[in-house]
Amino acid sequence: IRGQRKGSSTVFLARTHHRKGRAALRALDARERNGFVRGVVSTILHDPGRGAPLARVTFRHSHRCAKVQETFVAPEGLVEGQSVYCGPKATLTIGNVLPIGKMPEGTIVSMVEDKAGDRGALARTSGAAAVVIGHNADEGRTRVRLPSGQKKLLPSMCRGMVGIVAGGGRSDKPIMKAGTAYHKAKAKRNNWPRVRAVAMNPVDHPFGGGNHQHIGHPSTISRGAVPGQKVGLIAARRTGF
Asked: Could you give the CA distance from residue 89 to residue 99 in angstroms, rounded to a whole number?
């Protein structure tokens, strides 16, 4: 069935050939940990399969006479040629990266680290932003409200980029026609169109077959079910609304 074929198949691989690479904050080093590092936005570019634009930021190499390019998720208001500063002594300006423990309450941040040094894991999608809502200096932790509304306690050493991710409102525009959905999915991965399980034949899915399109048995299934049988509401604690 389709769920099994998605496992090790090359048919369902993500289309990554034209992608611009990993979007992440710069790797944490002594220069950034103790002061600040200056970079310049060299270009802002589109990444296929991603809603938010990316920014290529050029830094000086920390050990030798060379330049290093990092790829950030671009916040709203960032422009080419702008200077970006990373470090605890950086100012609170759009595009700058500093520990969330150094940001005042109410600061809007994106590309927030979940663990110090992981280079940005939270609030990365277009239009997304987290809000710093409190500090606990005794424990060295900062409370952040995530885009989902959930509040999360993070180490104050975790870094974040000041500002909201660009590309907001992308999902407000209606798709309108199947061709638009086709091209949207084409840039991401082979996941469209998606055939409903009850519309399949019994050989293709446990929900298939029958004289009417119905499942015919409970859609809940145990955690230890065998592959090919493990479809529907897997290990559901509750169902309905």
From this structure: 9
